[in-house]
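Please complete every field before forwarding. Incomplete forms are returned to the sender.

SECTION A: IDENTIFIERS
Entry label: holo-141
Bound molecule: zinc ion
Molecule representation: SMILES string

SECTION B: INPUTS
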Amino acid sequence: MSNNTAHILDHKHISPTPMRQLVLDTLLNKKSALSINDIEKMLYPADRITIYRTLKTFEQKGLIHQVEDGSGSLKYALCQDSCDDNAHHDVHVHFSCKACKETFCLPKNQIPKISLPQGYQPEEISLTVKGVCKDCQITMQ
Ligand SMILES: [Zn+2]
Ligand SMILES: [Zn+2]
Ligand SMILES: [Zn+2]
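SECTION C: PREDICTED COMPLEX
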């Protein structure tokens, strides 16, 4: 495990416990979003509740965000640097690959502003593009 994880946690004002470093390391090593089940499998036999709490802390501190890709299981991915413990500033489009079932962040694509009818209070917004990712395209050729 690298000291890099401790540095990143420190930067987001999260005290770097071994478990937090481990979960962060797992997220850093994967380029796609991970569900709690994925992380649990990768960190076996780590306790599911502890993983869940770790993810919640990361989310609150602006280190990771939730990814809804329509698969039915909630996934998490690392945030851009601009997120902090008050707000996520990197609301972006996600790409879900039909072939490998992985979901990726497309941080350069901001979700357009949606104008809601009067009296509607938005809480969250997500936009997922479905298709075939670059790696799978190459495999298919
Ligand atoms: Zn964020
Ligand atoms: Zn793919
Ligand atoms: Zn994302």
